[in-house]
Amino acid sequence: MLSEVLLVSAPGKVILHGEHAVVHGKVALAVALNLRTFLRLQPHSNGKVGLNLPNIGIKRAWVVAKLQMLDTSFLKQGDVTALTPEQVEKLKEVAGFPEDCADHEHLAVLSFLYLYLSICQSQRALPSLDVTVWSELPTGAGLGSSAAYSVCLAAALLTACEEIPNPLKDGEAASRWTEESLELINKWAFQGERVIHGNPSGVDNAVSTWGGGLRYQKGKISSLKSVETSAAGVKPVAGRSRPPALKILLINTKVPRSTKALVAGVRSRLLKFPEIVAPLLTSIDAISLECERVLGEMAAAPAPEHYLVLEELIDMNQHHLNALGVGHASLDRLCQVTMAYGLHSKLTGAGGGGCGITLLRPDLEQPEVEAMKQALTSCGFDCWETSIGAPGVSIHTAASLDAPVRQALDGL
């Protein structure tokens, strides 16, 4: 067991193109969002394991000796397999939860316990440690916050238990794990996600692990070689091209929606108007493929005209999504406000409210961006100026983290 403090971060995700069409076998492009989740793992010798999630006001601790006495043989050592519903109930007993709890706060704690007990089984005795996780990502907004959480937990616990080597060398501000270690992190993170979501696609945790961009179709996930960037001090994975990250404005309309209901709505529209809706889905597929091609060109030699094409694709996709019935008045308002500044936006994720993204061209003056953010905020929306194509899960020195992040992790 390593004795030093570990500081880990992982990105959220947005769908660039292909939402809803992906349900019907078309291509979706998912990219890492440079709003990150940060984790601090502190080993100690007080005989307790603690979890602190300041974003959702959760603080829990368990006596290691008591956990050690429980029958956790249902968590096979080193076995990355899905939990059965019976095993989830057993885990709830371990956590001291009532049987019928299914809210995300409880599931986040359950996911932590599952990963801690499973990964740390390799140690002679379960280790005493404190884990604090703080995120820049809003929860429940379709931005992959639970996947970033699971990825951070898996990476930190595997490294602390020396299942994978700590890649941070002296003098480095930040570093990334080898491809082999990332594979293992991703496998465990996917199981952590399953505790929270039941049956996730695996896209969110893959984007959070590897960063950059991924293409997803019919359950197959492959890397978008063209959308991966290297943060200062983060070593790019050999053989992958890394152009500059695309700058975006991420806007949360804060209008709640049900993904399930929206997906069902598109399905019933497809059944009712097959001749109209099927071509829309095919067209969205073509938009994803064209976007992938343009991003590939930008990796080699970015030019201003590439941004014009990306903007046209954004507009066309937003119109298609409206035609599928997943738009919302709040999203129309968002598009109107950004269009007044000559900028192009679309919903990202399920629609019906939720979040939208606006592409920020490199030639934009900062005062313009500020004025637009002001206009969006006065509509009651939350805005973040960030980038996509961010690096995946990374390990940091304390000095390399911004002061607000350090303070949040130190519980100040």
From TrEMBL:
Q: Does the keyword Transcription regulation apply?
A: no
Per the record, the major location class is cytoplasm
Cofactor dependence:
Mg(2+)
Q: Where in the cell is it found?
A: Cytoplasm; Peroxisome
Q: Which Pfam families match?
A: GHMP_kinases_C (PF08544), GHMP_kinases_N (PF00288)
Question: What GO CC annotations are associated with the protein?
Answer: cytosol; peroxisome
Q: Which reaction does it catalyse?
A: (R)-mevalonate + ATP = (R)-5-phosphomevalonate + ADP + H(+)
BP-aspect Gene Ontology terms = cholesterol biosynthetic process; isopentenyl diphosphate biosynthetic process, mevalonate pathway
Q: Which UniProt keywords apply?
A: ATP-binding, Cholesterol biosynthesis, Cholesterol metabolism, Cytoplasm, Kinase, Lipid biosynthesis, Lipid metabolism, Magnesium, Metal-binding, Nucleotide-binding, Peroxisome, Steroid biosynthesis, Steroid metabolism, Sterol biosynthesis, Sterol metabolism, Transferase
Its EC number(s):
2.7.1.36
Q: Which family does it belong to?
A: Belongs to the GHMP kinase family. Mevalonate kinase subfamily.
Its biological purpose: Catalyzes the phosphorylation of mevalonate to mevalonate 5-phosphate, a key step in isoprenoid and cholesterol biosynthesis.
Q: What is this protein identified as?
A: Mevalonate kinase
Recorded source organism is Physeter macrocephalus
